[in-house]
């Protein structure tokens, strides 16, 4: 793929849509996961994001299932050198647990992740949820050890308050410790306000790669929800309807479909292309469970919006 992007201040080059691995071991079994990953790679994509606790929420799971499936695929296909592998540490394994970024915990968990992923290094190791009871320096020193041991190449952060992110970057500079090169926030056409108000200037100042999750707002921006009746057809429909199907949400969906029709493409492709057109965004994270989703990824990379289309989407989604 020609239009690769460099991940922040690193030497990692990625195709600008990242596969979201939360579906492995949840809505896709191992065989289905292998098929979709084969197709993803065949289409020129090369980055996969997962976490040590995916997909603990699925009945019968305990966490680690996603990493294990990816690891089995990497081993069977012998293609580790073709993949930029991203995983996370510190998130919960259930509703009764808390985020944990203590040094001992990170060092314990990285071994489990490496074992499941069947690799000896992780390209991007991310703080999944910030544990504010742990000193920032303790977490960064744990990452420093892992980088020195060759187990991790670069580090990033996901769910972290702006002030803690700013402080982390400052401590890295002051103490000469590894520095977060990326931020993984929730950001999409619907969920704009928190990122744009609180993080945008900080990431631009620090040249952080931004790799947003929920790029399609849990599927709300995929084009399949056009009326009240459509939500009843999906297992996740009720929750999506409650969260997004208000006046603003309906305005966004209408604008998405207008632009998709004008560009002869899909709503999903337009929603991803809008993210790709934002100055601060390196690559959105999106999940796929069928071939048509991957085709939408490809289509998103081909879209070159005119000013009118961007203005229409921005106006519909303004907060």
From TrEMBL:
Pfam family, one: Aldo_ket_red
Organism: Sphingobacterium kyonggiense
Chain ranges of the NADP-dependent oxidoreductase domain: 16-317
InterPro entries, per the entry: AKR_Detox_Biosynth (IPR050523), NAD(P)_OxRdtase_dom_sf (IPR036812), NADP_OxRdtase_dom (IPR023210)
Protein name: Aldo/keto reductase
